[in-house]
């Protein structure tokens, strides 16, 4: 595995990890996550694919400017990385807020150079609205209220607050009880590499988006995954899969937290490989299944 950098049109140096050869495969991390957190996927898929995993601006080993912490800018960054590395027919795998980056990319660039999508554990809407009809928030998996998230954001951006403790508290429900303390500490350390002021800005931008109008316009084979043990309700994955034409749905069962790709990489990677095999055999079509 090697490291590289590309520079965006606003002068930000982005870091990425790269391994393997074959069809291009891109891993897009979520809020405060890093390319290094895809280590089990990189090691596995690099046997058969050219794998790239990036650090968003401010994250991991990427440069940490004082601007650009919104999904639209992050999707522009990914677009420029894809162009700089000349990735084509990309198998795009996204986690959590990385799905929001994906939907922004689709909105802005109509899925340019993307051949297949894998979306794991992110609702199309995160903030439930008081005017919605009964049951809609549950169906969408919109699990936060605006005031609740505003409180978290305010604390993240407060230099006098213990941001490390707050981040640990925010992440803890995202694991299963079986997760080791060592893994929890390591992921927390990765999260804290994004300065908390910038993390607050990005979190707020992420949660206020509503991507439901983008989903029906996705026209490549798509796998949507959720986890029975995740803080994100499985209804979110079901709703997203129903909104994307022909999408395939998989609900992970074992050690299936929000960090299932870390806690149970064998099942997570296996579902992706099954999806890729199925779409290879069918020439792209992949019927939606539970």
Q: How would you describe this protein?
A:
The protein is of the alpha/beta class. The protein has one domain (2-282): Alpha/Beta hydrolase fold, catalytic domain (Rossmann fold). The chain is built from 11 helices and 8 strands. Strands 1-2-4-3-5-6-7-8 form an 8-stranded mixed sheet, sandwiched between helices. Strand 7, helix 9 and strand 8 form a beta-alpha-beta unit. Helix 2 crosses helix 3 (97-109) and helix 5 runs antiparallel to helix 8 (196-207). The longest helix has 18 residues, at 265-282. It is globular and about 50 Å long. It starts with a strand and ends in an 8-residue tail after the last helix. Mean pLDDT is 94; it is low at 286-290.
